């Protein structure tokens, strides 16, 4: 429990309403997108950088840890409260300070929801390319914390490619700015890139300079339908081999087609082994050529290839894709989202690997993938209340990670390490690299105050 004097001081800093210490409130901040849980001593929601600084100093005086949190949608246990910690929630820091269309920069606070930023940018015919499927809920601070990807990343890159600078409160309470609105990189170490993807263990992000782009003039959305998931994966490899870069190349297998169809009624055939959602964008005069080239490649294997004819149809397809994770809840009570990435050309082998893991461990796996990036999310469906089944699922998850490493891939493409993947990090990195990780953490946070226990143990 937090000492009364600490609660009083927190309320003085952020106002009475922005401090949570009651049991029910704390319970709801104990979860994130994983099946893990923890309990914080309190939750505090600042509105300004100055308040963040005051909170950090107060927590330091009382030797209490801080766990930064955006919307809590991460899939790696990144916001699960550690022992003796207070959650610092950024959901009240929601100002869009500036949208500078001349310099292609927007300056925002970390609690701005990705979708809300897109809506404001759209009014000026601009957009922010990183768009995780959770974009209607997840915050820019959380996107920075995890270096999130999304459906557009095949062509446009991930969050780190769109962060020009950051304002960060360090564990000692000092404020630094890395980068800024300049398009070229900053001199010296690229501190921006060290912080992006650092999952809140190095500093608290209080302002973000994001790079924005003009909305492409046109886009076309296509659906390629396959008998088998292996066939769909072959089209992915063929498109990549042909040197074509669609904006989006997303895959859903039969299980997810059916769980999403149950409520979206997008008209995706329920007997299909898999679908690819393919999108291209650019100048109107380029569209027909791009669609034809992709269609020609897909049709060599796909049993059907369609181009969406209306905005409603496009919307339905995307609603299916974006709701894939949640849709499986009707099949089994629990699911584990895996996040592995392989070099694009190894995508078909990774799909084979997932099917093998499902068979070897006797588990049900649905696959959704940012296929163009080589990023797969095998969803393992189970019942967490069954201990034996849960242990089998964990063994299958480990096998998926090892399979990705065998294919020269990585144990996490976009969901981060957090608590969930921490135990596999040294399988990907050498002891010397692990030591370098530790030293970076300690140089920012020598007494391990920010988000302790995430990514690496100190
Ligand atoms: C249905 C669903 C779909 C998803 N789809 C995708 C997807 O397509 N691509 C993808 O990459 N991810 C996806 N995710 C995962 C998740 O949504 C992303 O990781 C997202 O960026 C997290 O944002 P958040 O606001 O929820 O952050 P949180 O979960 O609250 O935090 C994420 C991390 O950032 C840290 N953090 C948060 N704010 C700050 C701050 N101000 N300063 C310092 N550290 C901070 C936290 O400590 C934590 O380590 C999905 C999740 C769900 C549930």
Written overview of the protein:
With 458 residues, the chain is of the alpha+beta class. It has three domains: 4-89, 2-Layer Sandwich (Uridine Diphospho-n-acetylenolpyruvylglucosamine Reductase, domain 2); 96-214, Uridine Diphospho-n-acetylenolpyruvylglucosamine Reductase, domain 3; 217-416, Vanillyl-alcohol Oxidase, Chain A, domain 3 (3-Layer(aba) Sandwich). The chain contains 16 helices and 19 strands. The chain has helices at 4-14, 23-28, 49-61, 114-122, 140-146, 153-156, 191-195, 229-241, 254-264, 284-299, 311-322, 324-327, 347-361, 387-406, 425-428, 431-444, and strands at residues 19-20, 42-44, 65-69, 85-89, 96-100, 105-108, 126-127, 163-169, 175-179, 204-211, 213-214, 218-226, 248-253, 274-282, 304-307, 334-337, 340-341, 364-370, 375-382. The strands form four sheets. Strands 12, 13, 14, 15, 16, 17, 18 and 19 form an eight-stranded antiparallel sheet that branches. A five-stranded antiparallel sheet has the order 5-6-10-8-9. Strand 5 (96-100) and strand 6 form a beta hairpin. The radius of gyration is 22 Å and the shape is globular. The model has no long low-confidence stretch (mean pLDDT 96). The chain binds flavin-adenine dinucleotide (FAD).
